[in-house]
């Protein structure tokens, strides 16, 4: 069974930074692409970043320049670093094992970690 467990969310100050982590199990982590999605209150799910099995990274325009996705295959862990946090970054952030043909479409999604950005 594929499991994805996110952590690292919480209440953050505008202008601050955070690191989200996702520990994965149930599949050969190093062989698969991985994705972060987020859903803000009252809004649709938004793709924000993906990383291929080979380490190639992709970012949504909304976070380009402020976010960094990375993976540690030895630890079966996916990371998302975001700096210069803005109130509009407030959302539930999900770690996702995507379908192989489209990294924005989830095959399996974790329960998420809530990030709230406010002063």
Task: Tell me what you see in this structure.
The protein has 119 residues and is an all-beta fold. 0% of the residues lie in helices and 55% in strands. The chain has strands spanning 3-7, 10-12, 18-25, 34-39, 45-51, 57-59, 67-72, 77-82, 91-99, 102-109, 113-117. Strands 2, 4, 5, 6, 9, 10 and 11 form a 7-stranded mixed β-sheet that branches. A 4-stranded antiparallel β-sheet has the order 1-3-8-7, with no helix packed on it.
List keywords for this structure.
mainly beta; seven-stranded mixed sheet; four-stranded antiparallel sheet; 11 strands; 0% helix; 55% strand
DSSP helical segment count:
0
User: Quick one: overall form?
Assistant: globular
The share of residues in extended strands comes to: over 45%
Radius of gyration: 13 Å
The CA-CA distance between the termini, in Å, is 40 Å
Mean pLDDT, all residues: 96
Q: Could you give the count of β-strands? A: 11
In helices, the fraction of residues equals: under 10%
Main structural class: mainly beta
Poorly predicted runs of 5 or more residues: none
Largest sheet: 7 strands, mixed
Helix and strand element order: EEEEEEEEEEE
């Amino acid at each position: 069974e594929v499991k994805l467990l996110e952590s690292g969310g919480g209440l953050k100050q505008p202008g601050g930074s955070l690191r989200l982590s996702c520990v994965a199990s149930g599949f050969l982590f190093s062989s698969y692409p991985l994705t972060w999605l987020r859903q803000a209150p009252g809004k649709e799910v938004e793709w924000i970043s993906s990383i291929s099995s080979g380490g190639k990274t992709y970012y949504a325009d909304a976070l380009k320049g402020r976010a960094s996705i990375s993976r540690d295959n030895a630890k079966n862990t996916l990371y998302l670093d975001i700096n210069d946090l803005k109130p509009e970054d407030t959302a539930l952030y999900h770690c996702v094992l995507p379908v192989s043909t489209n990294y924005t479409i989830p095959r399996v999604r974790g329960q998420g970690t809530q990030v709230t950005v406010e002063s």
